[in-house]
Write a structure and sequence with these properties.
Elements (H helix, E strand, L loop, with lengths): L18 E4 L5 E6 L5 H9 L3 H8 L8 H8 L6 E8 L2 E11 L12 E8 L8 H15 L4 E6 L4 H9 L3 E7 L2 E7 L4 H23 L3 E5 L8 H12 L4 E5 L9 E2 L2 E4 L11 E4 L6 H10 L4 E4 L9 H16 L3 E3 L5 E4 L6 E4 L7 E8 L2 H13 L4 E6 L8 H10 L5 E6 L5 H12 L4 E5 L20 H10 L3 E3 L2 H13 L7 E6 L2 H13 L3 E2 L3 E2 L6 H13 L5 E6 L2 E2 L5 E2 L3 H14 L5 E5 L5 H6 L77 E2 L2 H21 L15 H12 L8 E2 L2 H9 L8 E3 L3 H11 L3 E5 L13 E5 L2 H15 L2 H4 L1 E5 L5 E10 L3 E8 L2 H4 L4 E5 L4 H9 L18 H17 L3 E11 L4 E3 L2 E5 L17
Parallel strand pairs: 5-6, 9-10, 9-13, 10-12, 13-14, 14-15, 18-19, 18-20, 20-21, 21-22, 23-24, 23-25, 23-26, 26-29, 29-30
Antiparallel strand pairs: 1-2, 2-3, 3-4, 4-5, 6-8, 7-8, 11-12, 16-17, 16-19, 27-28, 31-41, 32-35, 33-34, 33-35, 36-37, 36-39, 37-38, 39-40, 39-41
Helix pairs in contact: 6-11, 8-9, 10-14, 11-12, 14-19, 15-19, 16-17, 22-23, 26-27
């Protein structure tokens, strides 16, 4: 919406303030600046506000707005006077306004940094979180315009508005003056305000998905008059699943005399239906979708599943149609799954929704599934069904124009019917948000992800998402840091999901192997070693073993305190007559289930070869089991029952696992943390299957072991996440954050180049020094005499190095000469260097004092468009450059992150005394990593830092080289007010 000429030409309409938001009840609304075109909307809005709300706003009876009021409230300069409106269907439902004031409370301009703020929300929309969303956005606008504080006068009886201010999380002061409450809010975001904002975002977005998955009524728009076709198929699937709500068939081509179709009411439009429809499934050609969406919006539909194709997958014209579809739906407060979607499923007994093209609704289970691809969705549904697994919910988002994997994570976090979330993703529209949501969700239930288009860079049709410059292996490492179980294929996803959904998490990596085939046991043993597990020697029951022998051996293995998990291998056994028997799989399954049910809670997986009915029998044990009910706390969340273990909780938390030493770490002790914690508002309950009988079965040892290994790594992450790392307080005493900010402003200048600028050696040294990162000085040596003078100043022994880009850090090419003990050695080295590699003007040689001997490492920090700020570490030279042996962590890094970072590279033993060498000072190295992490986190203008080499000696570290690049800070959407993405 463009401003009229009456508005100030010096302040153009700020369209970047426009945003779609999800309200508390899951509906959407649009926030935008108010313009002079809004006069009639403002008057109409005000007429619908109650007298009481008007009194609270103006402190006096105020039945109508005068022409002067309307002019004042619609004319803004977007700097000192700003008004925002929340709209649904193009009409106002709430407004907020600020006016900049001086210390005396009178109208002012910059540099005054305080503003008076006032809200007004239609009574019919109060309680939906409208004022809270407006406060977030008007506060962000104010900060952008240099305003640091809001002042508000509120009548004591206006408790709702007082609560909005109180609950926002900002630092505030309150006083009572002249019969009103005077509030002052400091607008600088705090940990509390961000936590409040994200908590509201989580509840709202989870609710928006829940409204789609649990509607009270569904209309299928585009239901065919004859059998077949997309719409008629969805209607048939809805009825076959036993949907508990009301179902309607809608098609404008229906004959006027047609009243029912397949036993449900048939209508030509939604307007003919006597009640409001919650969910509409649209299955009409793309050119008719806008008409259907308008019909839905005008009749109060809450959400849409758009199966229609012909959008962004068809090219640029389709992309614009898709964007217009999203704009139209959101203008009515509706969210969209699709377009080009496969549909949605909710197996909850109270819902039984199959609004999809899947001909058979999956059994009820504990797995939630999200996929961006219909074809992959079909394959996953088929694979899970074939393995006897049930689902709690399923969303196939198609082109993912609106509802995304992030929304599904929000929903899965709270859904008590979901124990494991499986996601097939082809892009991450908001990577920082995904990482944050995944970390929080993974803390209470497993999140398994397959990332498609890993190397092609393909995005979903119509999407413009940030392109990552980091390798796929780095993306995987960052996901794992957030607790995400990333696998490579959908088969691995199903394998891991089955184990995680039905088995407790292992307390450690120790695996017992038992079975009736020595060869299959050895294959399993080898697979365990390859996956980093610690297998016990396989127990061979011989081919004569009976189901009872399996039961006894499994019971004994589970009771063994030196093992954390068990893998059972089974082949057809030899009967009494000496013939091989494929056997009755149900008999063996019953034996294994009995042993598992009677022993300590440890994960069990079965590897089988040609045993008929075994996998089906193991899967049938509890594929439709309901969650075990638990007492409910006052907060409405199930309380933890002592002595019980939920899926995704460590089975033997009371028994710490044995100390372990990996090939890349110093010896450490990994003690299991308690897994049953008191529920909090941010920690949803976990649930336990009613029966522990279901055991996942795999046709190959490698698949079972890989799934178990993922469970082991995830369990370890969960134990560590229970006691998160921290940033040591001692850093604060040696970091000059304000001075660094001032230095960065000076270096960038008043009009910084958007492309940024590299710092000189001295500038980089000064900047890093303010964060306690000293860089060993270097002096230029344009000729031999200058080199000798520099050495005299620095003190012998010295190093002579070239700094030309093509020779930098290339000791192998002769560009670095070390341990030059005197002037003679220095002159000789200078001559050799210039004779071999070129003139001094080309080589740019420098002299530097020698550092103590140690291990050369590389430490980097950079801003990736897709992943955010990343901290990287590796050994200098071939290990990191040629072999890619580099580890990564997201910023800000904690003490635990720093310790794991240096231990997670394959060459880490070099740091800890490999082959009898002296261990180096890893504590100093960890401190360096923490300081660099703080620098790039505190100052987003620092977009790239490379410390190379960093020599880590037995005592202390030395940074010999540093390059730093500054640029205007990239936008941080994850720190701004809540808003839905616009693709």
């Amino acid at each position: 919406m463009e401003p009229t000429p009456e508005q100030s030409p010096h302040h153009a309409y700020p369209d970047h303030w426009e945003a779609d938001v999800v309200l508390r009840d899951g509906g959407t609304a649009r926030i935008r600046p108010i313009t002079t075109d809004d006069a009639e909307r403002l008057v109409s809005f005000y007429e619908q506000v109650s007298d009481e709300s008007k009194y609270y706003r103006f402190f006096a009876p105020y039945p109508r707005l005068s022409d002067r009021d309307v002019h004042r409230f619609t004319h803004h300069d977007y700097v000192d006077r700003v008004g925002l409106a929340v709209t649904i269907g193009g009409e106002f439902i709430g407004t907020v306004r600020y006016d900049r004031i001086n210390e005396q409370g009178r109208p002012a301009s910059a540099p005054a940094d305080e503003a008076e703020v006032a809200f007004l929300v239609q009574d019919a929309h109060q309680g939906r979180g409208v004022a809270s969303a407006l406060l977030e956005h008007i506060a962000a606008v104010a900060r952008e315009r240099g305003i640091r504080r809001f002042a508000a006068e509120v009548l004591p009886a206006n408790t709702k508005m007082i609560k909005v201010f109180r609950d926002a999380g900002y630092t505030q002061q309150r006083s009572f003056e002249d019969g009103s409450v005077h509030l002052t809010l400091d607008l600088e975001p705090t940990e509390k305000s961000l936590a409040v904002q994200r908590g509201r975002e989580q509840r709202a977005e989870a609710r928006s998905v829940q409204r789609l998955l649990a509607p009270g009524s569904v209309a299928v728009i585009g239901t065919g008059r004859t059998p077949g076709g997309v719409g008629r198929t969805v209607l048939r699937n809805l009825l076959a699943a036993g949907f508990t709500g009301r179902t309607y068939a809608v098609n404008r081509a229906f004959d006027e005399g047609l009243t029912t179709l397949d036993g449900v009411p048939a209508h030509r439009s939604l307007g003919e239906i006597d009640e409001r429809v919650d969910l509409a499934v649209i299955a009409v050609p793309a050119h008719r979708v806008p008409e259907a969406v308008a019909d839905c919006g005008e009749h109060g539909v809450q959400g849409l599943v758009v199966l229609s194709a012909g959008y962004a997958e068809r090219g640029s014209a389709g992309r614009e149609l898709q964007r217009e579809l999203v704009r139209q739906a959101r203008s009515y407060g509706m969210r969209i799954i699709g377009p080009n979607a496969f549909g949605i499923i909710n197996t909850a007994e109270s819902v039984r929704l199959n609004a999809s093209l899947a001909p058979e609704s999956p059994a009820r289970g504990r797995i939630g599934l999200f996929t961006q691809s219909g074809a992959i969705g079909i394959a996953l549904l088929s694979g899970l069904h074939r393995r006897g697994a049930g689902l709690s919910s399923f969303i196939s988002a198609g082109n993912r124009a609106d509802v995304s994997g992030n929304d599904f994570l929000q929903y899965s976090f709270e859904d008590p019917d979901t124990d494991v979330a499986l996601l097939y993703l082809e892009s991450l529209g908001n990577p920082r948000k995904f990482t944050r949501l995944a970390r929080r969700t993974a803390a209470v239930k497993p999140v398994v992800v397959v990332k498609g288009a890993r190397h092609s860079g393909t995005n979903p049709p119509g999407h413009a998402v940030p392109v990552s410059r980091i390798p796929d292996a780095t993306v995987s490492a960052l996901m794992r840091q957030a607790g995400v179980i990333r696998v490579d294929t959908v088969t691995e996803m199903v394998d891991a999901g089955l184990l995680l959904a039905d088995q407790p998490l292992p307390a450690g990596p120790r695996v017992a192997i038992l079975g009736n085939s020595e060869s299959l046991g050895l294959l399993t043993y080898d697979a365990c070693l390859a996956e980093g597990l610690r297998p016990r020697p396989p127990i061979d029951l011989t081919t004569a073993a009976s189901p009872q022998d399996f039961r006894d051996a499994l019971a004994e293995a589970l009771a063994d305190g030196t093992c954390d998990a068990v893998i059972v291998t089974a082949i057809p056994w030899v009967g009494e007559n000496g013939n091989a028997e494929t056997g009755d799989g149900e008999v063996l399954a019953a034996a294994l289930r009995g042993a598992a049910a009677g022993g300590p809670a440890k994960p069990v997986a079965v590897v089988h070869v040609e045993i008929g009915g075994l996998a089906e029998a193991l899967a049938a044990a509890s594929s439709t089991a309901a969650p075990r009910t638990r007492p409910t706390t006052l907060a409405g969340r199930p309380a933890t029952t002592p002595g019980t273990t939920a899926p995704g909780a460590s089975a033997t938390a009371a028994t710490p696992p044995a100390s372990r030493t990996t090939g890349t770490t110093a010896p450490t002790t990994d003690t299991a943390q308690p897994t049953a914690a008191t529920p909090t508002p941010d920690t949803p309950p976990t649930t336990t299957p009613a029966t522990p009988g279901r055991i996942p079965a795999y046709p190959a040892a490698e698949r079972a072991v890989r799934a178990m290994a993922e469970a082991v790594k995830y369990a370890q992450w969960r134990r560590q996440a229970a006691t998160p790392g921290k940033v040591p307080e001692f850093l604060d005493d040696t970091i000059d954050e304000p001075g660094t900010a001032a230095l960065i402003d000076t270096l960038l200048g008043p009009a910084p180049d958007p492309r940024g600028r590299p710092l000189t050696h001295d500038e980089a040294g000064e900047l890093l020094g303010r964060y306690g990162i000293p860089v060993r000085p270097t002096l230029p040596a344009p000729d031999a005499e200058a080199a000798v003078a520099a050495a005299a100043r620095l003190g012998y022994p010295v190093a002579l190095k070239t700094t030309a880009p093509h020779l930098r850090h290339r000791a192998d090419l002769g560009g670095v000469r070390l341990d030059l003990a005197d002037e003679e050695a220095l002159r000789r080295a200078y001559g050799e260097l210039t004779d071999l590699l070129g003139k001094p003007a080309e080589l740019l040689p420098v002299v530097q004092a020698m550092a103590p001997r140690g291990v050369d490492t590389v430490v980097r920090a950079s801003i990736d468009a897709a992943a955010g700020a990343i901290l990287s570490f590796g050994l200098a030279g071939a290990p990191s450059e040629l072999l890619g042996d580099t580890a990564h962590r997201l910023v800000p890094a904690t003490d635990r992150d720093a310790a794991e970072l240096i231990r997670s590279i394959k060459a880490a033993p070099v740091l800890f005394g490999w082959r009898g060498s002296a261990p180096v000072d890893t504590a100093a190295l960890e401190e360096l990593l923490l300081r660099l992490s703080r620098l790039v986190d505190d100052h987003p203008e620092v977009v790239s830092v490379a410390l190379e080499p960093v020599v880590v000696a037995p005592q202390g570290i030395t940074v010999l080289g540093a390059s730093v690049r500054l640029a205007p800070p990239p936008p941080r959407g994850d720190l701004g007010p809540r808003r839905l993405p616009n693709y």
